[in-house]
């Protein structure tokens, strides 16, 4: 072996072994987060980085994990001797890299199967920056015994924690590793039927929203990573860092798309679409470029499991359940046209159309509800138009009962502070129109996601404007306040301004938990200190009624 190669290995290898042992100590210092965590070390790169001003004034960099494009976490070694200037590409290719490969592979093969450091495969990279140009060589090393061990761990996990009738189920710490493993063809067969059944079974095993939402976010991210890092690069060239910017490769440079892979890509698009609405259309357009007739049909007609189109002399309506979109063209501005529109949308929901839809509306009326904070969307405009016809109010209430779904959002705005639970515009509008719909309004307030939805923060102001502050309706007003997020600010309206209102408020608050009482008191009066100032400036008998509220602050 060339003496420069020997000098390189004599200095580099002990340095790497020392880094390896320190990294192992770090990894093993905490318990394994999941039985599916079977090794994280799957990348190793040795590289010579030339000096900023002189080539020889460089350093050897060690990357134990694949580096991010926007950061540098490499470990650096300044060579003690100048052996780099004596290395050639021939020596690197024929002597240095084969020896590195032999040594690293030996470490990989002898690693205990149960040890959570080396994965079952490792990408080894050697890179040298010359004064001009770069030398690079890489190889993928694999420990088949470790791969079989990981496969068995995954099989046992699915059997014990997914399909077992026992209450055992994946823990949140398992989610990332499990979702990643499900999309790894080295470990498990991948198809719509089996993979979909596993994902849905895990979802069904949870009873609480927090775990369900966390699992959905995790598998959505894993599916998106599979689509954009494994599937699409086989057929497209990424032309941008953000969004769906993909250019189809020349036919000679891309493989034929297997039907099973295309089916899974389409499944992925629909599954991600439940969390990221823009994905299905973007993925289906790419699938169409690959010759998928099914994707083309989805873009045009939806799944065909729901009524795609309805026409009359007053209305032209279309719906696409895959894209979660409804289009309404009102041909005549009259009550019957809006009745038919409501009937069509309600029928769609009964047929299984997603309630998180967006609406494209063509009509002449441009009214909105008198509620501050609501998005001025076409969906909002449609329900405001329906609400102008009292005869349609019962139909709106029936629609709302079909549409209301906790922890779901209409698709009329980007996710954010104006996001609204399905049924929002109909229910809030009906609540302003008549006390007959107060029970519906209260049911809505009980279901709405008080931790995240802000769209109805100012609804109480509109409610008071429509109905006034009446002691009889205190349960409704309290339910409205209870449903807003903790970030809401106190009202500037001095609406608890009679003894009767204060007593009614006290009666409602005593039925609530202490933290709920304080939240509602804060939203009405501000802090307890501010209530005390209000009491000082108030005369009897209201003063005494307000004083009775002070002990309800925590």
Please provide a written account of the structure.
The protein contains 20 helices and eleven strands. Helix 1 (3-28) runs parallel beside helix 2 (89-110) and helix 11 (378-387) packs parallel to helix 13 (424-433). It has helices spanning 3-28, 89-110, 144-161, 172-182, 192-205, 209-231, 259-273, 279-289, 293-301, 335-350, 378-387, 393-403, 424-433, 438-447, 459-467, 474-482, 499-509, 514-525, 528-536, 542-547; strands spanning 41-49, 59-63, 75-77, 118-129, 134-142, 236-238, 246-248, 309-311, 315-320, 325-330, 358-362. Strands 3-2-1-4-5 form a five-stranded mixed beta sheet. It is an alpha+beta fold and 554 residues long.
Measured as a percent range, the helix fraction is 40-55%
How would you state the average pLDDT, rounded?
93
- In the sheet with the most strands, the strands line up as 3-2-1-4-5
Low-confidence parts: none
Largest sheet: 5 strands, mixed
Query: Quick one: overall form?
Result: elongated
Beta-strand share of residues = 5-15%
The secondary structure category is alpha+beta
Cα separation of the termini: 79 Å
Structure summary, number of beta strands: 11
Number of helices: 20
Radius of gyration based on Cα positions: 32 Å
């Amino acid at each position: 072996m060339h003496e420069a190669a020997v000098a390189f290995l004599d200095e580099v290898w002990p340095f790497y072994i020392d880094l390896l042992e320190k990294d192992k100590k770090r990894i093993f210092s905490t318990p394994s987060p999941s039985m599916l965590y079977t090794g994280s070390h799957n990348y190793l790169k040795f590289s010579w980085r030339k000096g900023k001003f002189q080539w020889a004034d460089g350093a050897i960099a060690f990357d134990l994990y694949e580096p991010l494009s926007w950061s540098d976490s490499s470990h650096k070694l300044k060579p003690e001797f100048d052996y780099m200037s004596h290395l050639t590409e021939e020596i690197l290719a024929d002597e240095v890299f084969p020896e590195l490969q032999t040594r690293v592979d030996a470490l990989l093969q002898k690693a205990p199967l149960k040890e959570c450091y080396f994965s079952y495969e490792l990408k080894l990279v050697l890179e040298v920056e010359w004064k001009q140009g770069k030398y690079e060589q890489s190889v993928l090393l694999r420990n088949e015994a470790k791969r079989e061990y990981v496969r068995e761990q995954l099989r046992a996990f699915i059997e014990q924690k997914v399909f077992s009738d026992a209450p055992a189920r994946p823990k949140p710490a398992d989610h990332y590793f499990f979702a990643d493993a499900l999309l790894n063809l080295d470990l498990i067969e991948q198809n719509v039927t089996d993979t979909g059944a596993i994902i849905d079974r895990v979802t069904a095993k949870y009873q609480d929203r927090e775990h369900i939402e966390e699992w959905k976010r995790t598998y959505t991210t894993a599916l998106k990573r599979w689509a954009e890092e494994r599937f699409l690069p086989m057929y497209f060239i990424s032309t941008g860092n953000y969004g769906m910017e993909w250019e189809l490769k020349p036919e000679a440079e891309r493989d034929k798309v297997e039907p099973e892979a295309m089916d899974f890509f389409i499944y992925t698009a629909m599954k991600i679409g439940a969390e990221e609405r823009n994905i299905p259309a973007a993925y289906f357009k790419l699938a169409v470029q690959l010759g998928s007739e099914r994707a083309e049909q989805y873009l045009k007609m939806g799944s065909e499991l729901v009524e795609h189109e309805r026409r009359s002399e007053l209305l032209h309506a279309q719906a696409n359940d895959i894209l979660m979109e409804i289009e309404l063209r009102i041909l005549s501005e009259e009550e019957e046209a809006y009745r038919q529109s409501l009937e069509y949308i309600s029928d769609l929901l009964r047929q299984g159309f997603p309630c998180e839809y967006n609406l494209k509306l063509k009509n002449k009326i441009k009214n909105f509800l008198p509620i501050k904070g609501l998005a001025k969307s076409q969906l909002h405009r449609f329900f405001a138009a329906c609400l102008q016809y009292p005869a349609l109010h019962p139909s709106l209430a029936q629609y709302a009962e079909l549409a209301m779904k906790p922890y779901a959002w209409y698709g009329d705005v980007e996710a954010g502070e104006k996001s609204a639970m399905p049924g929002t515009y109909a229910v809030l509008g009906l609540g302003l129109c008549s006390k007959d719909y107060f029970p519906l309004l209260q049911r809505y307030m009980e279901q709405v996601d008080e931790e995240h939805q802000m769209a109805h923060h100012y609804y109480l102001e509109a409610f008071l404007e429509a109905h006034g502050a009446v002691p009889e309706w205190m349960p409704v007003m309290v339910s409205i306040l209870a449903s807003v997020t903790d970030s809401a600010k106190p009202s500037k309206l001095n609406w608890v301004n009679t003894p009767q209102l204060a007593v009614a408020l006290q009666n409602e608050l005593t039925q609530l938990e202490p933290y709920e009482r304080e939240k509602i008191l804060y939203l009405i009066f501000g802090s307890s200190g501010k209530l005390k100032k209000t009491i000082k400036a108030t005369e009897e008998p209201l003063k005494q009624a307000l004083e009775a509220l002070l002990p309800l602050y925590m």
